[in-house]
Design brief:
Blueprint (H helix, E strand, L loop, with lengths): L11 E2 L5 E2 L8 H18 L1 E2 L2 E2 L3 H20 L5 E3 L6 E3 L5
Antiparallel strand pairs: 1-2, 3-4, 5-6
């Protein structure tokens, strides 16, 4: 609140059990922060099953695209790793090609 505000905050007994100002959902600032942080951690832990993190579809597609493009580049490259670009005809090492 500003210095010229006519609204006076009063400390009261909150749902978290503290006698303080209402910060969020009837909780004091400390309890609101702790509970919200624990909620975020539990959501993150739900993504892991048996120590293995689940991969969402977009990350999986990006990883597969990366691997597939490397396989194609290596397939058409020579022993020295030089390949010819399909669209421009420029000869480059496969690591420099897109």
């Amino acid at each position: 609140m500003g210095f010229n505000s006519t609204i006076i905050n009063k400390k009261k007994k909150l749902a978290c059990g503290c006698f303080d100002f209402n910060f969020s959902k009837g909780r004091c600032k400390t309890h609101a922060t702790i509970e919200d942080t624990n909620k975020r951690f539990s959501k993150h832990e739900e993504k892991e099953i048996g120590g293995v993190e689940l991969v969402d579809r977009s990350n999986l597609m990006a990883e597969l695209d990366f691997v597939f493009s490397r396989i194609i580049r290596q397939k058409y490259a020579g022993v020295d790793g030089i390949a010819i670009c399909y669209t421009s005809g420029i000869k480059q090492h496969v690591a420099l090609m897109q």
